[in-house]
Write a structure and sequence with these properties.
Structural class: mainly alpha
Low-confidence stretches: 22-35, 249-254
Strand order of the largest sheet: 1-2
Largest sheet: 2 strands, parallel
Shape: elongated
Strand content: under 5%
Radius of gyration: 40 Å
Number of helices: 8
Length: 254
Amino acid sequence: MSFHHLNSPTPSQERTESKKRPHLSVFRFASFQTTNRTPSQAPPAYSPDDTLAERNHLHAKILHWMRLAIALVTLLVSLIIIAFSGNVLRIYNDTRYNNVEWILPLWPATVDLRPARALVACGVVLAVFSLVYVVLALAPTPLRSLRPLNLISTLVAFLSLFITIFTTAYASTIDDHLSDNTQAGTLASWTCRWQGFSSVAPGRFSDICSQSTAASDLVILMIVLEVFHVLLAGWGWWVGAKIKKVGGEKGIAV
């Protein structure tokens, strides 16, 4: 028997030693490599506060575009009011002394222009307010955040509502007071007496009556629109309070 044969392990010893040796399979090697590394953390689940914050931010976006739409509509309607009332005053100035087609004067000795001028002034103020809000709401300035826009929108809404109510009451009171007066009248009250007789009405009286009435009706429409604007201003403060309660409104731009 040779020396090599005496030192060679038997088959049973080989099996025992193979069990003792670490078996570096693919799976064991992969697990060995990641044993000392920090496991990756899964993204945190959405909390109720996160969902509420996203909902409030969505409300702020909707609020922003609704107020911007109201400002644009107000600007458009204001320009129409200015155009109608300004045209009425222009026609009056053109026909006040130039009435060669008519033997008798077209206008009474006293024509009260205050209602027409009040409509022009109302349209100008509302147009300026709306234009300022649109510029501030769209310009990339610090005023574009929610709280400054709430302040500006609230101020514009209440002032516009007051101006439209005052203009409507002021103009209608003067018109009603002079509606039956044969010696004086406003542009609307004097020309609208010919309503229904447009074929014989002198000097574009039908145009003055229809445009004066349209301008007055548009101011009444603006009252309804500004009431809605005031409600949106209140909603803006409510959304701002919700955002501040959840996580603060710093950096919340619309």
